Amino acid sequence: MSNPDPSELVPQVDFETDGRHEGFVRLFHSTHASAYGFLPIPVVVFRNGNGPTALLMAGSHGDEFEGQIALCKLAKSLDYRGLHGRVILFPMANFPAASAGLRTSPIDNGNLNRCYPGRPNGTVTEQIAYFIEHVLLPKADVVCDLHSGGSSLQYLPSALIRRCPDPDRYALHLSLLRAFGAPHAYITGGGNGTGAQQTLRGAAERQGPLLIGTELGGGNTVSSDALRIAERGICNVLVHAGILPESMQVAAPPSRLLEVGGPEYFVYAGETGVFEPRCDLGDPVSKGQLSGTIHFPETPGKPAVDQYFARDGTVLCKRVPGRTTRGDCLFHLGSELSGDDLG
Ligand code: CA
Asked: Is residue 76 in some structural domain?
């Protein structure tokens, strides 16, 4: 790989010596209110000898909270002396967005998980993406990226991996997914316009570490059930990576494995109006089944528009707000994984 330009962000923690190191990554940002100031992005490093490194991230989207809370709790409970290797906590990855409780940055509207590989001297969000891709990811063997549904979506608490062409790498990801122990676990193939190269998944494929993601609850709220699943999953990932001892493993029932494929897995609003859902999270549905209805209160006599599922599956994700605009995602499904994909 060619030598990348250095990141402009300045970590104020020691990644390489044993102990617990809590501090900030400084992102210099000159504004009307603070001419020479920096944005303090929190980071905590635990290291005990040479061994594998886990990078635990939350707040890529600032309105997704279970991961942020789980990492706050871990920042206080983890004892570096019990580790083999290193754990890096990065709980407010898009710091301006997480500070504001918003999906995207109020500074530049940047969606961190669509910004990779970023730019060393780009917008604030691009600079954070560049730092994660070129400074944090190369240190990591395994990355856990803790997402929830955000303000507009609600998920069945799930862990996920992305399909990758290398069968050995796919098998490693699948065992990580099983180790996490979420009630639902799914494999994505992309195809819903997320621009995979611009996501952390694309960055991890370029830089090498294994990556597991989550979708825990959502709706701009905190679910105590989803938080418990996150805390258990993080602990089990650290055991699976060999960083925590086997005795720390938390028992979990086997995950129900699903996959999420192309556009037929998604239902999008075809009209702008008020959305009436006709099914709930976890429901089994079939192709052609009514998913919801869009009403037009501005024109009460106008016929409502029904929206249908385009394939069979289980409802994994559902839109939260009632008002909807043409193009919004209303639902997405998961389908049973075929035996060939189970590794
Ligand atoms: Ca998210």
From this structure: yes
Q: How many domains in the chain?
A: 2
Whole-number Å distance, alpha carbon 60 to ligand 1 midpoint, is 7
Q: Please tell me the pTM assigned to this model.
A: 0.96
* Cα 306 to ligand 1 centre (Å): 28
**In terms of domains, do 157 and 41 share one?**
yes
Domain hosting 269: range is 263-341
Q: Are residues 151 and 247 in the same domain?
A: yes
Q: Helices 167-180 and 224-240 sit at what angle, rounded to 10 degrees?
A: 130
User: pLDDT tens, position by position, for the chain (343 residues)?
Assistant: 557 899 999 999 999 999 999 999 999 999 999 999 999 999 999 999 999 999 999 999 999 999 999 999 999 999 999 999 999 999 999 999 999 999 999 999 999 999 999 999 999 999 999 999 999 999 999 999 999 999 999 999 999 999 888 999 999 999 999 999 999 999 998 545 556 899 999 999 999 999 999 999 999 999 999 999 999 999 999 999 999 999 999 999 999 999 999 999 999 999 999 999 999 999 999 999 999 999 999 999 999 999 999 999 999 999 999 999 999 999 999 999 876 666 5
- CATH number, domain at 323? 2.40.50.100
CA angle 186, 189, 192 (to 5 degrees): 105
Q: How far is the CA of 126 from the centre of ligand 1 (A)?
A: 17
Distance 317 CA to ligand 1 centre (A): 12
Q: Are 158 and 126 part of one and the same domain?
A: yes
Cα-to-centroid distance, 147 and ligand 1 (Å): 5
Which neighbouring-strand residues pair with 293? 276, 306
Q: How far is the CA of 149 from the centre of ligand 1 (A)?
A: 6
Ligand 1 centroid to 233 CA: how many Å? Answer: 17
Distance 150 CA to ligand 1 centre (A): 6
